Amino acid sequence: MGSRVTSIRSGVDGLDELLCGGLVTGRMYLVQGKPGTGKTLLGMHFLEEGLRNDETVLFIHGEESREEILANGEAVGVDISDAAFLDLGPDSEFFTEDYSYDLVNPSDIERERYTQDIHDAIREIGPDRVVIDPITQLRYVEANDHQFRKRILSFMRFLKQRDVTVITTATRSPEQEYDTEIRSLSDGIIELDRGTGGRRIQVSKHRALGQREGDHGMEIRDDGIEVYPQLVPVRTDRPFESRLLRSGIDGLDDLIGRGFDQRTVTFISGPTGAGKTSTGTQFLAKAAEDGLKSAIYLFEEDAQTYEHRSESIGIPVSRLREEGTLSITEIEPRALSSEEFAHTVKRQIDRQETDIVMIDGIGGYTVSIRGDETELIRDLHGLTRYLKSRGVTVLITNEIAEITGISSATDSNLSYVADNIAFLSYVEMDGSLRKVVGVLKKRTGGFEHTLREFEIAEDGIRVGDPLTGLSGILQGTPRTDDPSDISRLDRS
Hints:
Pfam families: ATPase. Residues 472-492 are annotated as: Disordered. It is an enzyme of class 2 (transferase). The protein is an alpha/beta fold and 492 residues long. The protein has helices at residues 13-18, 39-52, 66-75, 106-125, 145-161, 177-185, 250-255, 276-289, 303-312, 317-323, 338-352, 362-368, 373-389, 483-487, and strands at residues 7-8, 23-24, 28-33, 57-61, 84-87, 129-133, 165-171, 188-195, 198-206, 215-221, 224-228, 244-245, 260-261, 265-270, 294-298, 326-330, 356-360, 393-399, 420-429, 432-442, 451-457, 460-467. It folds into 2 domains: 7-95 and 107-228, P-loop containing nucleotide triphosphate hydrolases (Rossmann fold, 3-Layer(aba) Sandwich), CATH 3.40.50.300; 244-480, Rossmann fold (3-Layer(aba) Sandwich). α3 links the parallel β4 and β5 (84-87). The relative contact order is 0.11. Mean pLDDT is 85; it is low at 91-96 and 98-109.
């Protein structure tokens, strides 16, 4: 009969999710990454979690003093002052005496001191959790890689006999052979990275419990390390129910086939200034009348400007905020990873039971969120799939380059993300610009395959009758043999 596998929390909630529940008791884990990626801090979270559970914990360190470690932890709200410390660094008492080596190899003496010191500390303290920072300091006193492997194997058995869970750290050094040895012997490997896309974390190995694949978002904030796993759509057997999201504007609702189905993703595309945000907000205002809650995330303007613009055309955004049917969140440029933004949205729908999420707009999203644009679009697709699985309707505004005409439904080849695409466009008439609105795609239900006049006035959005007898509108220059048809666009 096999031994029962039990797990303990790592001290970082998102990391436990990647580890499929936590760290396996009595196992050894390797945290690896470049300098400054948070390896030591992750180990400190692990020990702090043990202290919260009234466990005995031991920090074996060799590169920083106890005082430096505690000060670094205090800066991010991590307190392990009640932990036991074993300093193997050159400033510890272990190295203060003046040793001379007349007939033996110095590494033989130092190796015995290292291992004896560690063994004595563990036997005396009886820790439940141990951090060794870094594990590579043990390699420096071994004669070769073979001896190092034997030493680590012996050390692991010694710890497992006492049911001690260990986190070791190492700076990634692929050119060094013992890097492979440590990875091979570790029961779990947690890899940290930091690049142009921000901090990243990946669990590449986890014996017994398995792990969530891929790399995920990570930040170091005022409260220490925060991990943001990529969101996974929620499995549900709930049948699709056709409930329509309407704008409350008769002409627009007629154009879109009485409304867009809820639990779908709708893109509102068009050139700058055409009215994309205002159109999306009109849907949110109508949803509030129907008892639905919405959240809008602003990437391209501040909340004050957004409220003022909306109020100026009769959309009562301030009142909706006060009533709790609309929340408005500004996203600071380059402050979040795509995963952290996704978890920001998730927390909102969890706390407020949000029915509709509006992202305004794609251009600002890809500029403001850290990371490669292609990966950001992939992550946005993942977010929309998650929201739909939670029964949330998604509206996304998308700016296209053309001022007049439509050559592409969406920017950056995003059509596959959208269930529905409505578009706004300018048309040139007698040297002035007019606006039209149409629908290019609706995955469920019918819609008008025509264009309608579109105007934003002081009393709100106006959508006129279908434009018939005209051609060239999508090129931005409508043409007809009957001048009276053209005159219907003239609002002068």
